[in-house]
Amino acid sequence: MSYLKTVPPEEATGNLKASYDTLRAMFDRIPKVYIAQSLRADLLEPVVLYNKRLMTETHGLSRSTKELIAAYVSKLNACEY
After folding, report:
1. Checking phi first, is residue 80 left (phi over 0); if not, alpha (psi -120 to 50) or beta?
2. Helix, strand or coil for residue 38?
């Protein structure tokens, strides 16, 4: 059960649907942290674009290396997500 009102992927339209499609292409799913932001598609869109550019484009480090760094930092921060 969700305590936040959200727009599920199957009900998304417009910019929100485009953001969900981008996330699905990046992760093969839509992480719940992004669905939690679905009521503000105008704010979610730049976050998704930033993450896409940061994680999927090659800028000296491979995507797998970037993901390992992100996982390590999450562990250091005791992130439960």
Report:
1. alpha
2. helix
Q: Cα-flanking dihedrals φ and ψ of residue 64, to 5°?
A: -65, -35
Closest CA to 48 of 67, 65, 24: 24
- C-alpha 16, offset from chain centre: 12
In sequence order, which ranges of 1-81 are alpha helices (DSSP H)?
14-27, 32-35, 41-56, 63-76
| Angstrom distance (rounded) from CA 34 to CA 9 | 10
At 12, give phi and psi (nearest 5°).
-70, 145
Residues of the chain with pLDDT under 50: none
Separation CA 41–CA 17 (nearest Å): 9
Rg of the chain over all Cα atoms, to the nearest angstrom: 14
